[in-house]
Amino acid sequence: MMSDDLVEPVDTELRSQGEGLADQAARAVVAYRDGDRAPLAALVQVMTPLLWHTVRAQGADQELAQDIVQNTWLTLVRDIESIRDPRATLQWMLVTAKRAAWRSVRRSRDEMVRHEQDEHVTDWLAAPADDLPDTVAVRSERDRLLWQHVSELPDRCRRLLGLVALVDRPDYGVVSRALGMPVGSIGPTRGRCLAKLRVALASDPAWSVS
Amino acid sequence: MSTDERTLALVAAGGLDLDDRRILNHLAELVERADPVPPGLIESIGMALTIEAMHAEVAELHLVGEPALAVRADETSIEAGTITFTTDVLTVMISVHAEAGRVRVDGWAAPAGELSVELHQGGDMTSTTSDSDGRFSFSDIERGPARLVLRRPSEPTIPIVTPQIEL
Question: Which among A113, A171, A188, B42 is most buried, taking Cβ atoms within 10 Å?
């Protein structure tokens, strides 16, 4: 159980930090406990896309992903009094969503194997650009090139870059940790995944001229 | 260490620059376009959290009979339809009428009495009070998923909530 005396120093500390999602989440949790639900409602707007893609990157289908994301939010408010450190909220939610997705996907994949079905469910960001629905995603040659080079990265790197791309710098570390990637894999240095992409793009003549 | 490996290590140890941010921004666009958050998800999360915030003491109203006529959000056929919800303490009947691209909801609650009636749609809430006969209405309402929350003056802390319906 969270004791009130811990809330205040956290809140004071937050004011001196840059505003990332993790900070916004921390303030929303503190406000919610004080009876103000508006900051959490605002957080739902800005954080749901990140949760969505985190869950999708684990291979959850659309319907399953919607349930998991909604449940992650419900779990947060049900357990909100017991969060010891509100600053850990973002990471906690990403990990919760990722684990729930991973469990469900593994379960459904076991079933699929029994049904002898294909298992192309984890191909997040890996589908060939030509297979994307009606080039909704790929509008230009530059889109296609970037998509192609990202597709060719190892699975872990695709997930890391695809999710880190959705947040601002203060949250890079949180996203990396939530994905189980070593701390510092992106920021302050580039890290190997982003380096791989940079090297691949730099050696593609089509990228540099387009 | 091969040349490739050495180059990679060197680039990896470099600080993030503007080009990195541009590439990541571009990638974010692709991710969001290729697999957008489904429409309505954020609203339904908002609604679920609102209901959750009312806490455990919620009496669920159950849908009675065939909802198909009234609750399908079919663009072409939002005919007037009637839905009945019931619980031990309250029965609510509502009818939904199309009204110039939006809808009007007329309702009636029994036992008759003045109730506070809220219509929740995503994060938005419209409220009204039923008259002494238990009648209430909402006009000029946007289509989409919605939920009614009714509160009795006798037990204001136990709201009565309908399942989500599609107006």
Answer: A171
Of A41, A146, A192, which has the smallest distance from its Cβ to B30's Cβ? A146
Establish whether this prediction's ipTM goes over 0.90: no
Q: Domain boundaries in chain A? A: 1-118, 123-210
| Same domain (yes/no): B13, B72 | no
Quote the pTM value: 0.71
Residues B144 and B91 in one domain: yes
Residues in chain A with CB shorter than 8 Å from the CB of B41 are 48, 52, 66, 69-70
Number of domains making up chain B: 2
- Non-local (6+) Cβ contacts of A170 within 8 A are A17, A18, A19, A20, A21, A22, A23
CATH code of the region A1-118: 1.10.1740
Using CB atoms, which residue from B4, B32, B42 is nearest to A45? Answer: B42
Residues A165-175: tens digit of each pLDDT: 999 988 998 99
Q: Rounded to an integer, what distance in angstroms lies between the CA atom of residue A98 and that of residue A53?
A: 10
Q: What is the DSSP string of A152-172?
A: TS-HHHHHHHHHHTTS-GGGH
